[in-house]
Automatic annotation (TrEMBL):
Pfam families linked to this entry: DUF3570 (PF12094)
InterPro entries: DUF3570
Taxonomic path: Bacteria, Pseudomonadati, Pseudomonadota, Betaproteobacteria, Burkholderiales
Organism: Piscinibacter terrae
The name this protein goes by in its record: DUF3570 domain-containing protein
Amino acid sequence: MEWSAPLRRTLRSRESLRRVALVIGGGLLAAHGARAVDLPEDRAEGLFHVYKGGGVTATGPALLVRKSVADKVSLSAGYYVDQVSNASIDVVTTASPYSERRTSYDFGADYAYRDTLMSLSLSHSKEPDYTANAFGIDVSQEVFGGMSTVSMGFTRGSDTVLKKYSPEFADVVTHWQYRFGLTQVLTPKWIAAANFEAISDDGFLGSPYRAARVFGAIVPERNPRTRSSRAIKFRVNGDLGSSNAMHAEYRYFWDNWAIKAHTLEGGYSRYFGELWLADAYLRYYKQSKALFYSDNAQSETLYVSRNRQLGTFDSVGLGAKLSYLWKKVPGKYEIKANGAWELVQYRYKDFTDLRTGSLYSFNANIVQVYLSATY
């Protein structure tokens, strides 16, 4: 028994979980005063994360090490583990609960040349029935005396999909992602950014385990083998003075499966003395359903899915993070202790719990505890 493709995307994506691994968000206007050609800081991070909600529990460690070479190249390596126990509504209504492990490795290299920063990335993740590999390249260029930064990038991914206890089943998925961004310094205290991305997927885009309903009967899910999607995001960061800062962002997503989604987020950060930094944010997400999604289809069609992640739903996320400067030796290193928590409420508008016949909803909690050191 394996976890479904939507759960994989839920645990991997920033949209739903912020990828509980190595992307450590927050900070008091983290981009304030930074130039695009500056290499990332030498740092090491060790994290333990917990996700619990909707019958799914995922826990595990994450490690990241980054080191620069000759002030021109920065190398990084990351390791991430998910130990998943799955008794989600999809599993308990059509199969049996199960446990499994996913392991991910990430490698990166950044090269700075004059006003240009070039980045390469490699990633590999593996679980019993799913293997994913990706290669990415990004370039950012400062213009107008460092007041503006233009960035562009490309990622290609290749996945292999298997089905446990069914050795005759095997399929592939290929992903292409193109992205473009512009960051603008508005004033000494305000920064704005706009980003656009286009994604194309080709191959097996469903789950070999998931079932749909047609006239009340359980049938295998049938999804199209191609998908094209677009997203645009606007963000503004502002230093409010007196150790206060804020950020606000809006993201719009649409694809050729007729899904449209809106994300709104606002956050506030504040220093308490020189040792404590607190962050809080609120995020709202709303999505419309795919053309072929149905809770219980009343006609036979070429494609049909009961994947609730393709249905109509919204979610509200409330998060907080607290950082403490544990130890600092000027000019040598500093160590911070961090804790983060997020509560997300999911409400489905056209997906019912087969056990009760009621519309489905659940709450999820995400907790991170980690140490970060710069040196």
